[in-house]
Amino acid sequence: MKKGWKLAFLGLLALNGIIVLLLAIGLFSPIQDETLPKVDAQEEAVEFQVKSNKEDLNKVIKMFVEKEKAKSFVDYNVYLRDQVELYGDVAVFSERIDYKLTFEPEALKNGNVVLRQKGIKVGKINLPVSYVLKAARDAYQFPDWVKIMPNDEMIYLSLDKMELKSNLKVRADRIDLKKDDIRFTLQLPVDQD
């Protein structure tokens, strides 16, 4: 009887050691970043200038997020306030841990957007930003035009790759959330037959 108990204890101890080892390997393995996508050459298009605000853009973002969340097993939300805020939770063993990431948006000259990570809260624990972004990238099903770049602590939004109806393309011209000044150019391709 004593020998069986000792074997069961050693087996449980070995299992715990393997779990800790796998977690350590996952946490300390290098993070592979993707390269920034190249911007495709623009075809001839008619352009429309659009000025928006956080309230209206939050409605559009909610529509996109709800569509993407339907394909995923996790729950997350994105809001525009004075910064871009990403809320969600992640399963750790049998518990759900809340997190909040904040980003400063920047409209690039090529019309795409970079979200530079500014703050992070994961439960009551401070974790390295790169690990949290890597976990988000690996856990969530983001659209192809959203690139999570943990090593650079940013998210790259390739608006030129975003698929919209009527082949409409979007270029970000200005994003100033503090002044609620958000400007885009909508490009509608015209056929030259």
UniProtKB/TrEMBL annotation:
It holds the Pfam family DUF2140. The chain crosses the membrane at residues 7-28. Keywords: Membrane, Transmembrane, Transmembrane helix. This is YpmS family protein. It comes from Bacillus lumedeiriae.
